Amino acid sequence: MTATTATRALRGRLVWFVADPHDAGEAAHRFVEDGLLVIEGGVVKAAGEARALLPTLPAAAEVIDHRPHLIMPGFIDAHIHMPQTQVVASYGAQLIEWLNKYTFVEEQKLSQQGHAEKLSRFFLDELLASGTTTAAVYCSVHPQSAEAFFAESERRNTRMIAGKVMMDRNAPEALRDTAESGYRDSRALIDRWHGKGRQLYAITPRFALTSTPEQLAAAGRLAAEHPGCHVQTHINENRAEIAFARELYPDAADYADIYARHGLLGPQSLMGHCIHMLHNEWSAFAETGAVAVFCPTSNLFLGSGLFDWAHARKLGVNVAVATDIGGGTSYSMLRTMAEAYKVLQLQGQSLPAFAALHAITLGNAVALGLDHLIGSFEPGREADAVVLDTGATRAMAHRLETVRDLAEELFVLVTLGDERNVVATYVMGELADRPSFSGGA
To answer: 373: pLDDT confidence band, cut at 50, 70 and 90?
Structure first.
């Protein structure tokens, strides 16, 4: 198959979304029991009933039969750290101590020859094995970390958003840049990678604690000069973090105002965590279109708090969901949504299966401003897809004997699912490699 001309079709039970189930109910999703996803030149040509589409295929078309498995758009992760793959499951600390004790130690290793390349390969292997085909990725402060990541993503043809972290204070000297070097290095990476193939750049000041006002101003200049780029950072994750941010920026009205004053709050801004938000901060998000990124496994693991999705929705704030590896504890967006369900249950909120699966496909695509490219099987979208076996484990197969409809089956998938349910992942219609692992170092 050539990337430009050949036709490939995936047959199975198709599920995708055209709207938010919260707003459109049953009309939000499409389900085809015996469906065909027709891919031409790496994009979706058609999705519908197999019996109607099979006769329309060219004689040379390749049909891959995944029945009875589900086929969905590739999952999307809105906040994840590439340098932290070996920080996952580090014991016993909340945010600030965790950063100093574990994260900053590991991130210094990315200055070593070949380490960023090693981590990038592992990282993308894990994402694709979990059915995740797009992510918003933090690299380290080293420009070569972003260079290595983009090069590996380009090799695999994955659509990724990533950026070099900017940090010029409150971090080890080996992890600090300056306002000027952070600006210069980020601009060079934007020039080299943003819009190259499927690669997109995110201007990435880590958070207000590790950037001086001068560096945040430099990041704001980058955002103004490159309006097509995303901005990604952290906000209101931990109460000690918030108190420190207010000390460092005493003139700001609140934490969100720190970013707003520096031109970093807008519709392309992906703001990680947003747990301890004030009313004025929620209002600023709603007015600017900034995206609140919900990271349930990280928020639970680091003891940070519970994200209030219902309140964000009520105020019209865009919400995305994410694993936040390595504070998070799973690369799987299915596992992430299982924890999201529990976080919301603790607050008297609900998360039906259709809402959860919408969130990690079309919902995150909308939040990232990429729904014209990814997140659904509508014609013209890039053909990223994940094939899922809802009975992949003994416990799931046993439970599925009693399900009564698709909604119940999908809820089992969301609640008990993980990377073991992923049969195959397709990137622009091409089957992605799935490295095997038999244990050991």
So the answer is: very high
Alpha-carbon distances of 249 from 47, 66, 178, 258, 382, rounded to whole Å: 52, 55, 18, 7, 43
User: Cβ(158)–Cβ(149) under 8 Å?
Assistant: no
24 vs 30: CA distance, rounded Å: 12
Q: For 391-413, how does the pLDDT look when each residue is reduced to its tens digit (9 = 90+)?
A: 999 999 999 999 999 999 999 99
Nearest to 142 by CA among 102, 96, 101, 188: 188
Confirm if 75 and 130 have CB atoms less than 8 A apart.
yes
Q: Which residues contact 103 (CB under 8 A, 6 or more apart)?
A: 81, 83, 84, 87, 326
Cα 290–292–298 angle (5° rounding)?
A: 150
- Is the bond preceding 267 in cis, omega lying within 30 degrees of 0? no
Q: Cα 257 vs. chain centroid, distance in angstroms?
A: 25
Cα separation of 329 and 321, whole Å? 14
Tokens representing 235 are: 């906000």
pLDDT tens digits for range 203-249: 999 999 999 999 999 999 999 999 999 999 999 999 999 999 999 99
Q: Which residue has the tokens 């909120």?
A: 349
Question: How far is the CA of 383 from the CAs of 39, 46, 81, 126, 175, in angstroms?
Answer: 7, 10, 25, 20, 38
Closest CA relative to residue 124, chosen from 63, 196, 190, 74: 74
Measured on CA atoms in the order 397, 399, 402, 405, is the torsion positive or negative?
negative
Q: Which residue has the tokens 């170092």?
A: 441
Residues near 381 by beta carbon (within 8 Å), at least 6 away in sequence: 43, 44, 73, 372, 373, 374, 375
The predicted structure's pLDDT at residue 2: 40
What does the alpha-carbon distance between residue 210 and residue 248 come to, in Å, rounded to a whole number? 10
- pLDDT tens digit sequence for 65-84: 999 999 999 999 999 999 99
Distance of CA 274 to the CA centre of its chain: 16
Q: Is 233 helix (H, G, I), strand (E, B) or coil?
A: strand
Could you give the CA distance from residue 441 to residue 227 in angstroms, rounded to a whole number?
43
Answer yes or no: is pLDDT of 4 > 50.
no
User: Tokens standing for 201?
Assistant: 């750049």
Identify which of 355, 320, 359, 336 has the alpha carbon closest to the alpha carbon of residue 79.
320
- Separation of alpha carbons 375 and 354, rounded Å: 14
